[in-house]
TrEMBL record:
Gene3D superfamilies: CBS-domain (3.10.580.10). Residues 8-66, 73-130 form the CBS domain. Keywords: CBS domain. CDD domains: CBS_pair_HRP1_like. It comes from the Bacteria. InterPro entries: CBS_dom, CBS_dom_sf, Diverse_CBS-Domain. This is CBS domain-containing protein. It comes from Streptomyces hazeniae.
């Protein structure tokens, strides 16, 4: 059984909900990632911020990324998976919610992220084709 921990990209970091988007972009650049889980004051996930959110939801609307916070961009119900979860559970979670990145937690702590690239390295061609069809077909 392949687990979420075995396919995830380790070392993911939170961005506090109170942090500004310009700082979030700097952290994304430093970590070479396109998404950051957003944490509230109690270190509970309250969303995920993507580079696309910053560009489309802030900059393209003429808003100042030094005045908009990660929390301002948090929408919807955050999704995550336990590190011990089987890869089939990872796929089900990502496909059923049509998400492209999934935070991985262990003992209620963020330990990694699973992205499409991580899936591509660990799944069969048929599994990847099914994932792409389910996540992108109705986008």
């Amino acid at each position: 059984m392949t687990t979420a921990a075995e396919i995830m990209h380790p070392g993911a970091e939170w961005i506090p909900a109170t942090e500004t988007l310009d700082r979030a972009a700097q952290l994304m650049r430093r970590l070479d990632v396109g998404a950051l889980p957003i944490s509230d004051a109690d270190e509970r996930m309250c969303g995920i911020l993507t580079d696309r959110d910053i560009v489309v939801g802030c900059v393209a609307e003429g808003r100042d990324p030094s005045r908009v916070t990660a929390g301002d961009m948090a929408r919807g119900t955050p999704r995550w998976i336990e590190a011990s979860a089987d890869v089939s559970q990872v796929l089900e979670e990502m496909q059923s919610h049509r998400i492209r990145r999934l935070p991985v937690v262990e003992n209620k702590r963020l330990v990694g992220m699973i992205s499409e690239a991580d899936l591509a390295h660990h799944l069969t061609d048929d599994q990847i084709a099914t994932f792409v069809e389910n996540v992108y077909a109705h986008s």
